Amino acid sequence: MLNRKEKKQDLDGLKYSVKEDGRARRIILTVSDGKVEVTKPPYVPVEEVNKFVGSNRDWILERLREQKKVWGEMSPGVKLPYRGRRLVLKPFVIGCGQIRIDYKDGVVYLYLPRSISEEERQERIYQKLRWWYRKRAREVFTERLGHFAAIMNLKYNRLRVKDQKTRWGSCSRKGNINLNWRLILAPSSVIDYVIIHELLHLKHMNHSADFWKDLAGFLPDYKLQRNWLKENGKKLTL
Fold first, then answer.
1. Does residue 25 form part of some domain?
2. Which domain holds residue 105?
3. How many C-beta atoms surround the C-beta of residue 196 within 10 A?
4. Three-state DSSP state, 156
5. C-alpha to C-alpha distance for 226 and 210, rounded to whole angstroms
6. What is d(CA 149, CA 47) in angstroms, rounded to the nearest whole number?
7. Which of 77, 86, 105, 195 is in the most buried spot, having the most CB atoms within 10 Å?
8. How high is the pLDDT of residue 3?
9. Could you give the CA distance from residue 109 to residue 180 in angstroms, rounded to a whole number?
10. What DSSP string runs through 54-109?
11. Tell me, what's the pLDDT at 76?
12. Residue 222's pLDDT band (boundaries 50, 70, 90)?
């Protein structure tokens, strides 16, 4: 039977929380996001937990110092923009391997090897996050393009995800759709507006009255999305 209770503890200035878990078979110690957490089986007394934490005090303090040093201004719990929402960044220091990112249920888990030097950490983190955003952008744009192309009975040639300074999207005469990866930071409704806009250029290679009439037919509130992008476009950045 699962039974969870959480208690706050303070051992000579070292603060940590203790959770009781009916499924636990031993004491488990974790240091993450600048916090220390201990999970214990119900039959283990708190006194034994305190003794366990005390015996690992040096290791805990070293992990806390390491996490603070690694992340600097990018503190744990920082919010990352994504499709109009805010994802929580949870960083972890690992012993070896490659820097990597996992994403699940609105949380971005970033694993950074201890071997990466202090001088290159922030740049490596930024590059990895940027890579992840572009990867997610391609996945989302591909799905939404296919969705609207079918509804609009239009066929595009290929998708290119680009890093553009002034354009959010474009459509070539060959039927290629180009989309700025930073759109993935905008609300989903804005992403859909840009995608529908560019798909319509397969039919109208201009911004004629017929173009805007068709756009309103597929997206009646397109002016709201267009205005949002005009007002907030410069904020869509890491």
1. yes
2. 79-129
3. 22
4. coil
5. 18
6. 64
7. 195
8. 43
9. 24
10. HHTHHHHHHHHHHHHHHHTTS-TT-EEEETTEEEEEEEEEESSS--EEEEETTEEE
11. 55
12. very high
